[in-house]
Amino acid sequence: MFATGKRVRGWNRLCAIAADNPDYYARWIARAEPARVARWIASNPAPAPRADPIVAIIADAALGDAAAQTSASIRAALGPATRIISITQEPTDWNALKQALLGTDQARLLPIVAGDLVALGLGAVAERLPPGKAACYWDEDRRHAGQRDDAWAKPDWDPLLFQSHHGLLGASLLDAKAVLGVWDRWIADNPALCPAAKLEQLCFLVASEGALHVPLILTHRTAPAEPPLSRAEPDPAVWPTVSIIIPTKDLPHHLSTCLRGLALLEYLGPIELILIDNGSTDPEALRILADQAERPGTRVLRMPGPFNFSHLNNAAVRIASGAVLCFLNNDVEPLDGQWLSNLVRHALRPDVGAVGAMLLYPDGSIQHAGVAIGIGGAAGHIQKGTMPDTGTEAHRYIATRRVSAVTAACLVVRKDRFIAAGEFDEDAFPVAFNDVDLCLRLDAIGLRNLFIAEVRLIHHESKSRGQDDSPEKQARFARELQQLQQRWQTQTCQDPWHSPLFSRVSERCLLQI
After folding, report:
1. CATH number, residue 441
2. Residue 262 lies in a domain
3. Helix (H) or strand (E) segment spanning residue 473
4. Would you call 408 exposed, middle or buried from its count of C-beta atoms within 10 A (0-12, 13-18, 19+)?
5. Residue 191 CB-density burial (10 A; 0-12 exposed, 13-18 middle, 19+ buried)
């Protein structure tokens, strides 16, 4: 899967240099942020005077100077008469809060932690938010030694991400009626949590049915970033049969490496392996295929001819016995025995379409951590080329979360959902963008596509078919790119799961100046 070839690869290198410059974010704040805020305000006219005042709730208010700084920033942004309620661990504080809300149920609540600050622009933004929303949230960064850094440009509402990554407390407004509607369940479910954690749970509970995202950085946190909360999907009652489908041609080293990785599998259900031979002539590759054909549970489908990824995989699906499909490139190297189980758990969820894994280059850098639509006018791999376990953004942009698409180099999907979406498009996308198109069609029928960061495999990208460097391949790629752009308007659309603050010419999550 490609973005737009050399142009994006060149921009990736330039953007990586820019992102590593310690002054980059400061320059963005000075040059780009004021214009962003002004454009948002200009495009969202203020309605008539509002009857829903904002009430701030400060957790850990006993922290003295920190709470005073938070209060000062709130009143500077929202007005000196803004009501502020302090909350500690004492049950009487929570009872008093409920009584206060009962008396002002037309209000909007700003739950925040002592020490965090809000931007001056929050007041003008809050005036322009549409009424009747249960929850609205915005982006954030952190303050270290008086300087802002570690920006988190958030996606649209994604419960999978926000349930584990603490992205609402201090950066959201909640409707007081919605809070009262969940109050008894919220208090009963979280009796022993500290005030900040309890308010965080309140934010998520109110927003769980959906929340409006404002793509502006309006909260500046003081405390260090909290580690993500672990969240494991339960095992299914019965593990379904999985058909692992691998197109291959020659390159016996990669095929044997992939098969050795598959031998590590500890999947508890039945597995069917379908190898699609696209016309191998290498003697060692033919020997491997012949050996595999003799193994129980393995089928070798002979399909010589021009390479058409979509056609090869669709043909394999038609003979597959599995209720779940796993599309896997022959140059992908599994590293452990649990990767398939971890992907299947998510693929079986009732509202999920395609599920993808983190794919790493042999040097450990990211090849795939989800696909964003619109990069390079087409689609690109998020954070491609960065290291997954370094940098402040790693737990946010490389987290288990909803994405628009995942690569078919390792893609798991239920067979009935794959068929319902129309399979891979053999005519429009024989080689490139077939996975993006499939995922967007899954999304169009109401299914979420997920990237699972905990699952990691090695991908020797494009070695199985070479680069698109011949005139014929370049012409074919241009046709497929045009099809993608016409069908999904990728030159102008904004990916809801990739912040509009990010550059559209780089796969790196880089704030656009």
Report:
1. 3.90.550.10
2. yes
3. helix 471-488
4. buried
5. exposed
Token pair 């460097």: residue: 469
Residue 26, domain member (yes or no): no
* Strand-strand pairing, 298-302 and 212-221: unpaired
Residues 6+ apart with CB under 8 A from 431: 307, 308, 309, 465, 476, 477, 480
Contacts of 406 (CB under 8 A, 6+ apart): 354, 355, 356, 368, 370, 371, 435, 439, 449, 450, 451
Place of tokens 């963005």: 28
Total of domains in the chain: 2
Cα–Cα distance measured from residue 290 to residue 274, given in angstroms and rounded to the nearest whole number? 13
Backbone conformation region of residue 331, classed left if phi is above 0, alpha if psi is from -120 to 50, else beta: alpha
Expressed as residue numbers, the domain containing 314 is 242-488
Please name which of 367, 395, 398, 360 lies closest in space to residue 381, comparing C-alpha atoms: 367
Q: Report the DSSP pairing between strands 401-403 and 366-368.
A: unpaired
Single pTM value for the model: 0.93
In a domain, 495, yes or no: no
Specify the amino acid at residue 75.
Answer: R
Output the DSSP codes for 317-371. HHH---SEEEEE-TTEEE-SSSHHHHHHHHHTSTTEEEEEEEEE-TTS-EEES-E
269 and 184: one domain?
A: no
Measured over all CA atoms, what is the biggest interatomic distance in the chain, rounded to whole angstroms? 81
Contact predicate 272/297, CB 8 Å: yes
Q: What is the 3-state secondary structure (H, E, C) of 41-59?
A: HHHCCCCCCCCCCEEEEEE
CATH value at residue 60: 3.90.550
Q: What is the pLDDT along the chain (513 residues), one digit of tens a residue?
A: 444 555 555 555 555 556 667 789 999 999 999 999 999 999 998 877 888 899 999 998 667 789 999 999 999 999 999 999 998 888 888 888 888 888 877 899 999 999 999 999 999 999 999 988 999 999 999 998 889 999 999 999 999 999 888 889 999 999 999 999 999 988 888 777 888 889 999 999 999 888 999 999 999 999 776 777 777 788 999 999 999 999 999 999 999 999 999 999 999 999 999 999 999 999 999 999 999 999 999 999 999 999 999 999 999 999 999 999 999 999 999 999 999 999 999 999 999 999 999 999 999 999 999 999 999 999 999 999 989 887 666 667 889 999 999 999 999 999 999 999 999 999 999 999 999 999 999 999 999 999 999 999 999 875 334 455 688 889 999 999 999 999 999 999 999 999 999 999 999 999 998
Cβ-contact 202, 182 below 8 angstroms = yes
226: DSSP letter:
P
**Cβ distance 494 to 504 under 8 Å?**
no
Q: Is residue 500 part of a domain?
A: no
